[in-house]
Backbone:
């Protein structure tokens, strides 16, 4: 019954918040009048209210009203009763920490598995994977666990970035980091470039958008998959 | 009695491992014949043996023999008896996890405070700060804590990178990440560019190298400090 959209980013360079994906969101959230927004990742540390306002402005273009989970007395009930859910980007550690703190991991998993349409972007996509161990974010808070929702049988690396061969900076490339990940973990990692997303319907996981994605499997050479590829075989 | 060198990186683009700082290391480790190396951060996932070999090759140029801590039966004793210690770069989470696992945090802190000369580069520098919450690394393992040695009264951000204004990538800049850090933490952060290091002697902390460093204090506009600046007032 899953009906999920896992996007690399909320925003493409030069366009407005969620603009590039709004047509697809109108389909995902067809018939929905009110969306529950989880603003916990707080990009640049903005407040839950300020973040929800930005999201509301975007969704008003497809006639959907947005309510922040922080405005509910009981966030577990808010998730149980939601007609649709969106978790926005920001810091994955802050997001994960708040989800655990509010005891929302189990209920979120249950309602999404039972068919509540879900959108994640960036940090909100990271938590759809098995763990948050392939986030790009700074670990500014210490969450009780790195385990995530596991809505797909692999990890997500959003904002996937190809190595810049002209760089003189000696920090690791994204590919090096994911290679390091596979010294300690065996699950696949899907590197989603900005503008790409995964469409998850029941057991089908399909790459969408115009770009290829980079797949990292344990003990295999990384490879590219074109848009339209079915990824549910990854395990 | 502290005698510490906290370097942003081990290697500058286009030169060999530790080459740029070797003259200063000859002073830091003056009279030392054998160095204890902590290879736990495992850059690119290389083995402890392979990593120690690289470090040994560099230190042989200043006539210092290098022994990896992994070759000792009792790593706590190895640290207690070490004449000098170097912790190399790689993944800060892997390094921190292994230090906790082997119960090395307390003993490391004790010997360094008592005067055992210490060199850290990259991940090995991150652990000199109050916490590892300003590392750039991917959280590929879950350490029991993000608390670090606290040899300086602030956090380190090694490989500090200025925002690339021409970039069309929508991931956060380093400055944005550190700003987010300060929504949840109040300690200062010193962004050390590649080629910079901190020289810590007793209570003096001086910025060295040719470049300025970027200092981020809670609720203040970030600012640059020139080489030679005394940083022990940061708190």
Residues:
């Amino acid at each position: 019954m899953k009906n999920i959209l896992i996007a690399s980013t909320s925003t493409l360079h030069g366009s407005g918040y969620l603009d590039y994906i709004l047509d697809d969101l109108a389909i995902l959230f067809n018939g929905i009048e009110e969306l529950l927004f989880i603003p916990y990742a707080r990009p640049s540390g903005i407040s839950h209210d300020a973040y929800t306002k930005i999201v509301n402005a975007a969704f008003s273009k497809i006639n959907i009203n947005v309510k922040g989970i922080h405005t509910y007395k009981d966030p577990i009930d808010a998730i149980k009763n939601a007609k649709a859910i969106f978790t926005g980007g920001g810091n994955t550690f802050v997001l994960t920490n708040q989800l655990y703190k509010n005891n929302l991991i189990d209920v979120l998993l249950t309602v999404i598995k039972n068919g509540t349409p879900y959108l994640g972007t960036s940090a909100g996509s990271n938590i759809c994977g098995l763990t948050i161990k392939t986030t790009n974010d700074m670990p500014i808070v210490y969450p009780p666990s790195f385990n995530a929702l596991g809505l797909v049988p692999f990890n997500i690396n959003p904002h996937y970035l190809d190595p810049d061969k002209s760089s003189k900076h000696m920090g690791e490339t994204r590919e090096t980091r994911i290679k390091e990940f596979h010294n300690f973990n065996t699950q696949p990692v899907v590197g989603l470039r900005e503008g790409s997303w995964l469409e998850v319907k029941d057991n089908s996981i399909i790459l969408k958008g115009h770009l290829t994605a980079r797949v990292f499997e344990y003990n295999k050479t990384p490879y590219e998959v074109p848009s339209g590829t079915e990824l549910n075989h990854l395990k």
Observations:
- The first strand of chain A starts at residue 3 and ends at 7.
- The radius of gyration of chain A is 17 Å.
- The mean pLDDT of chain A is 96.
